[in-house]
Amino acid sequence: MLFALGRPIALAGLALAFVLGLIIRVLAIRAVQRRRVPAGWGTSRRAGGKLVDVRRDVDIFGLVAAVVGGTGWGKKVEDTGMAPAPVRVLLAGPIAVIAAAQAAFLAFVLASEPVSLATLNSSSVLRGEIGGGTSVQMFLLSLAVGLLCFGLLDLVPLPPLDGWGLLRHAVKRPGTGFQKARYWLEDQNVGIAILLAGMLLPLFRGIPLFLYILDLVTWPFLVLWG
Q1: pLDDT recorded at residue 36
Q2: What CA–CA distance (Å, rounded) separates 51 from 209?
Q3: Ramachandran region of residue 81, left (φ > 0), alpha (ψ -120 to 50) or beta?
Q4: Torsions phi, psi of 144, nearest 5?
Q5: What is the largest CA-CA distance in the chain?
Q6: pLDDT at 44
Q7: Tell me, what's the pLDDT at 97?
Q8: What DSSP string describes 155-175?
Q9: Where would you find the membrane-spanning parts of this chain (predicted)?
Q10: How far apart are CA 132 and CA 175, in angstroms?
Q11: At how many degrees (to 10) do helices 87-110 and 162-170 cross?
Q12: Mean pLDDT, the chain cut into blocks of 10 residues (226 residues total)
């Protein structure tokens, strides 16, 4: 978001996207938790009446990534014993946020003149580099891309993202190598270090690794709505 300081409208859209991404993810997780999940799991997320609890739902490193890189992540979903959270719980957050992004794209299309998005990169939007357009267009596009990137980034298989829990489910019989990798990535916080480096350090044409990957995976959505 720091790169978008020169465009306050785009900055407002990105900031709202991050806040909404956190809220939508938490609400989706809670909604799935009310259904059939293993007994005794997830009670801490249902406790209290706050929509989003800063200490429980906001990851400080995810916030740093959002401030500098334009998008970030929320707090890790608690494990149940030695096993990760159920698959439907892990999928609920990113799917809900990605769906919300589609609603924001629809609002962008309905509220503005036809604009081609096929040549636009999500990393440019995350940095506030939006050429032309009205204030409404800039705000809605920043909101839509911010939500989309929040949801897609959450699927990356690195802790503390939900994609890491999905990877652990996919590995039915983890060997010694996977256990060592989990120790370093999860217990020693190397996963967070990789995420921060991939969000902040420019590698590909001056673009950080994960922003470059987001450019690739968000392109079909931009083509669809553009």
Answers
A1: 54
A2: 33
A3: left
A4: -65, -50
A5: 56
A6: 44
A7: 98
A8: TSSSTTSHHHHHHHHH-SS--
A9: 6-28, 89-110, 130-153, 190-214
A10: 53
A11: 130
A12: 78 96 94 67 47 78 94 88 85 97 94 76 89 82 97 96 95 90 93 95 86 95 88
Tokens of 43: 């009670």
For helices 135-153 and 8-33, what crossing angle results, to 10°?
Answer: 40
What residue spans of 34-59 are helical by DSSP H? Answer: 43-46, 54-57
d(CA 213, CA 220): 13
Q: What is the pTM (predicted TM-score) of this model? A: 0.90
Alpha-carbon Rg for the chain in angstroms: 18
Task: Give the DSSP letter of residue 73.
Answer: -
The position carrying tokens 């044409």 is 205
Closest CA to 51 of 28, 17, 80: 28
Structural tokens at position 74:
């929320």
CA distance 43 to 40: 7
Identity of the residue numbered 217: V
d(CA 52, CA 93): 14
Residue 169's φ and ψ, nearest 5 degrees, are -70, -35
Q: Does residue 71 sit in helix, strand or coil?
A: coil
> What pLDDT does residue 18 have?
97
Give the Cα separation of 192 and 171 in Å (integer). 21
Tabulate helix, strand, coil % of the chain (nearest 5): 65, 5, 30
Give residue 86's identity as a one-letter amino acid code: P
pLDDT score of 49: 53
Q: Is 207 helix (H, G, I), strand (E, B) or coil?
A: strand
d(CA 225, CA 106): 8
